[in-house]
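DNA repair protein RecO
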Amino acid sequence: MPTYRDEVVVLRTHKLGEADRIVTMLSRRHGKLRAVAKGVRRTSSRFGARLEPFMVADVQLYQGRSLDIVQQAESLGSYGAEIVAHYDRYTSAHAMVEAADRLNEAEATPQQYLLLVGGLRALSRGEHASRSVLDSYLLRAMALSGWAPGLGECARCGRSGPHDTFVAQQGGIICRDCAPTGAARVDAATVSLLQSLMAGEWDLVDAASAGSTAAASGLIAAYAQWHLERGIRSLSHVSAPQEGSR
C-alpha cells in the first residue's frame, strides 16, 4: 500500500480502543481525511500533542483499505495552547473547525485549508476580536463553497443597492419589493461591516461599533445555519459581542 504526505489541520478526534484515536483532518491537497493514529493516547507517543484539534501538521499517512494510518506528524503551527487558554478563542475555533467539517469533499479545497489555517493563526495571536475572526471565516468559507451572500445588489432580483433587508433563505441583502413581511431590517453600518468582514478589511472591522458587530454576527450565524446541512452546534457556545466591549 502506498504512503503519502500532506499538510493538515486537525478538526476533531475520537477514541479508538485503549490507546488509539481516529483523527479527522482538513488537508491541503487531499480534501478531508480520517486516519487512525496508533498509540497516540499513550504518554510515550511521539506525536500525540501534534494531532490535537486546532493543530497544523505535516503528516505522512499509510493508505489503508478503510481508514488510513498516521505514520509521522511534524508540527507546522502550534495554535492549540493559545486558543484553549481563552474561552472566546476556544469557542470560536470550535465553530470554525465544525464548519470546516461540514464541507462536502468537493468543497474541501486548498483554499479552504489556507483560510482555516489563517483563521486559527489569527485567533491564537489575539489579533482581532474572536467573534469577528469567526464571522469573517464563515462568510469566506461559504463564499468558497459557492454560497457567497449578496451584500450589494438585491440577492433575488439584482436591483442595485443600497438595500436594508436581510433574508438568509433568499441569499442575503434584498430590496424591499422582494422582502417578505417581517423580514429583518439592517442599517447601513451593519451592511458595511458585513462587506468588510467578507473582504478582510480589518481596520474597518476593528473600528465597528459593538451594536453593528452584534447585528452582523447574528445575520452571519443565521446565514451559516441555513446553508450548512446540519448547522453549527458550537455557535450556541460562542459569546455574542457586548455593548461597551470595544
